[in-house]
Write a structure and sequence with these properties.
By secondary structure, the chain is of the alpha+beta class. It is built from 16 helices and 15 strands.
């Protein structure tokens, strides 16, 4: 499965959103490999999959959940929809999303600009649009927008207190009259099986279509009056103005978030060059910029591991020191482990897998495997040193004698994780362990003897003779 989100301009009636969605449904249903689709209009579905966050109610929002026969065809389907909607639904935005593996965001790249508690909305919009334009310049950007969406027209009716008192007309009476002219007024409820549907009273369609011009003549019924009064007699003015329908806050501060969906990985859009370009935008005093989305999720996930990593690392160090009764062996092991990142990086680049949270867990388990290989080799050196051999011969003979056991242990582990390459969730962990352990094992058999000779100051026989 994958999801197709449709966002009409903010303020669009839900009937118009549903009409637009019929075109998108026909396109998605016609793709080869699609077995079924399910549409939700006005709000996202219930949270049927933990990492998928259901969208809040908006009359301008709709979502299609697409069932496919083969998940490997999803990228091609997304590319086809992405090319189609620009010409057929230019008034809206179509965002395709695949299910996240682990913590995920609907908008992978987010940049939040915060102001004071009552920060100027125009300033926030200007800064947000400037950041959005900067992100949109990247070839990796698929869809860029702000979470404040578009402004909408609002009818502003200013109540005339003097005439209102003389005619016993209240603000609620005016609200009921304007509501009757546009959306209607709820006058009851109709029960249909287990659902309660509102009964609306409103003017017919021709009148509502011209309500903006005929509103001054709309009749107001005072609560204690015996006759109706034209709306213009109890109002000072009736104007139409643009307003912000959505004003978001973060930590009780007004904040506008620039949201972007990349063509591929989030790190490709949020590159160092793009981060530098966005952060170079000058902000007025009192305003701040921070990155959210997958970047913040990744930082939070990594930070959650620190309380467990530090005690585990200290425990491993204490055990190694107690095992060898020396400080230099744990220093040698600690020096070797970071070099495994060379193999991990090579594997992730070759397979195109991201270094996400699952891959990070694989790297942590890989460190334990490399520690085990190093302990096996160092223990053999101690055993051979007790026989009275020359220190240099001890290093060479130990490396030769432990080569086969270490390689066999690493080989069985590498072969054991091969089945995980078929699993879409564990593939990054499998790649991390396979390439990291293969390269790290070879590195251990070469680098560990070298570091051992350096720290224990063991010269080679040829250099000693010279």
């Amino acid at each position: 499965q994958f999801m197709v989100d449709y966002w009409a301009p903010q303020g669009t009636r839900i009937e118009d959103t549903a009409s637009d969605l019929t075109l998108l449904e026909a396109k998605v249903r016609g793709l080869e490999g699609v077995t079924a689709i399910t549409s939700f209009i006005g709000q996202g579905p219930p949270r049927f999959y933990l990492p998928v966050e259901s969208e809040k109610p908006y009359s301008s929002y709709a979502q299609i959940i697409v069932n496919v026969a083969d998940y490997r065809e999803i990228d091609a389907m997304i590319a086809a929809i992405d090319e189609w909607w620009v010409d057929h639904l230019p008034q809206g935005e179509v965002v395709m999303r695949k299910y996240g593996l682990g913590p995920s965001e609907s908008w992978q790249v987010q940049a939040r600009i915060s102001g004071q508690a009552i920060a100027d909305a125009d300033t926030l919009r200007r800064l947000g649009e400037e950041v959005a334009r900067t992100l949109a310049e990247s070839p990796e950007a698929r869809t860029v927008r702000t979470n404040w969406r578009q402004r909408v027209k609002q009818v502003l009716v200013v109540y005339d207190e003097n005439n209102g008192r003389w005619t016993t007309t209240t603000r609620s009476d005016i609200a009921q009259a304007t509501g009757l002219a546009f959306d209607g007024v709820t006058v009851g409820q109709f029960r249909e099986q287990d659902k309660l549907l509102p009964i609306l009273m409103r003017y017919d369609e021709p009148y509502r279509a011209q309500a903006a011009t005929t509103l001054p003549t709309a009749q107001v019924s005072p609560q204690f009056g015996m006759s109706t009064i034209p709306l213009a007699q109890v109002t000072e003015s009736i104007d139409v103005a643009w307003e912000d329908p959505l004003i978001w806050r973060f930590n009780r501060r007004r904040a506008i978030t620039v949201q972007a969906v990349p063509m591929g990985l989030a790190t490709a859009l949020r590159s160092p060059e793009m981060v530098q370009a966005v952060e170079a935008i000058e902000l007025p005093p009192g305003y701040s910029l921070e990155w959210d989305g997958e970047y913040r999720n990744s930082k939070d996930s990594q930070a959650s591991l620190i309380p467990g990593i530090i005690p585990a690392g200290l425990a491993v160090a204490v055990i190694i020191v107690a095992l060898f009764n020396a400080i230099r062996p744990p220093l040698i092991i600690a020096t070797i482990i970071p070099f495994a990142m060379i193999g991990i990086t090579l594997g992730l680049l070759v397979t195109g897998q991201p270094f996400g949270f699952v891959a990070l867990l694989g790297a942590m388990s890989l460190a334990g495997m490399m520690i085990k290989n190093a302990i096996v080799l160092l223990d053999e050196m101690n055993l051979q040193q007790a026989t009275g051999k020359a220190p240099y011969d001890v290093v060479i003979d130990s490396a030769v004698s432990r080569l086969r056991p270490v390689m066999l242990a690493a080989g069985t582990t590498v072969l054991g994780v091969i089945p995980l390459l078929q699993d879409v969730f564990w593939v990054s962990m499998a790649v991390t362990i396979m390439f990291g352990l293969a390269f790290g094992t070879l590195l251990t058999m070469v680098l560990l003897p070298v570091l051992y000779c350096i720290l224990y100051r063991i010269p080679s026989p040829g250099r000693k003779k010279a």
